[in-house]
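User: Here's a protein and a ligand (D-xylitol-5-phosphate). What would the complex look like?
Assistant: Let me lay out the input and then the predicted complex.
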Amino acid sequence: MADKRYLIAGSILSADLLRLGDDVQDALDAGSDVIHFDVMDFHFVPNLTFGPMFLKQLRKRFPDAVFDVHLMVDPVDDAIVDAYADAGASWISFHPEACPHAERMLAHIQSRGLKAGLALNPSTPPQMLSYLWDRLDFVLVMTVNPGYGGQKLIPACVRKVEDVRRMAVKETARKILIEVDGGVSAANIREIADAGARIFVVGSAFFGQKDRREAMRGFQKALEA
Ligand code: DX5
Ligand code: ZN
């Protein structure tokens, strides 16, 4: 998986929560490279989702899956990071607004052996990343305001993907792994890839579909075009 050009991350926010394990199995069978796990706290965003117990159970059933934990909580502290690390997270991202010492928190996530990323809300400027490049394994660019699945992508945020890519090359002379989250579909995935993203979170356009294999083929076809 590591050398795959593009990764698809099915977001369980749009799964059937009463059959979560089977839906994750279905997503992996359909070719989802990563399972995106949205953590919401009703404060940072107006919704409440999955605690670490859910992740622990999923990790038990899927020992080899890549679980991408997206923390939409405030505050982000060592305790919450450790709870999801202990439960089996592979990657953890958080929003800088919720953590005054982002550099230290990224280092803490990495010290747990996980990949660490920062998530940028639509109104969060990419300059936020400027002094953190060396600490970042990836950047998650939100293309909707976080809180719900099934929203429409905000086009200006695709330009932010380009800006992040350009800034990383200019300031560090290397590429940064960019993940895009919100409103991604077969109709816009190519344009987002062209802007510089390599990981695509898909909720309603994947888990929300009856035929997930067909949905996956749609993404792959668009990405190969
Ligand atoms: C939104 C979440 C997303 C969500 C995306 O706050 O962070 O991960 O699941 O869902 P879609 O793909 O339906 O926009
Ligand atoms: Zn997310």
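Summary: Residues 156-172 form the longest helix (17 residues).
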